[in-house]
Amino acid sequence: MTDTQISSFIRDCVVFEDDTENGLDFDTFYGLYISWCVLGRKIPIPDSAFKTALEREGLKTIKLNGQRIYPGMSMVGPAARDYVVNSVPMWNDSAASAYALSEAVEDAVPSIA
């Protein structure tokens, strides 16, 4: 069997846990794949082709709480770290102005001293 880009990605970035109902939704799975491609300087395939490639690898989704997920899958490795770090919402000026300084002072924890 030849090693495909998708099988290499799965081997490098995903662990399977049979005893969990948790999993990865498609957007997270594809985002992880994009991070893996960027870190490895690979050209990613489009999301529609990615979905087809996952099916060819035997990965099927289930519906859980109204969302389709790939069950029992968790992210690991450098691409997982990259995906998580780059998926955190960024603080911007409009968010800063929406949250007034006076509110920040009220939310602050008083010092122990």
Provide a descriptive summary of the structure in words.
The chain has 113 residues and is of the alpha+beta class. The chain has a single domain, classed as Arc Repressor Mutant, subunit A (Orthogonal Bundle), CATH 1.10.10.10. The chain is built from six helices and five strands. It has helices spanning 5-13, 26-40, 47-56, 77-87, 93-98, 101-107; strands at 14-16, 23-25, 62-64, 67-71, 73-75. Helix 2 (26-40) packs across helix 4 (77-87).
Q: Using the coordinates shown, work out and report the CATH topology.
A: Arc Repressor Mutant, subunit A
Mean pLDDT: 81
What is the first-to-last residue Cα distance? Answer: 66 Å
Number of domains: 1
Structural shape: globular
Per CATH, which architecture? Orthogonal Bundle
Q: Using only CA atoms, what is the Rg?
A: 19 Å
CATH superfamily: Winged helix-like DNA-binding domain superfamily/Winged helix DNA-binding domain
Helicity, as a percent range: 40-55%
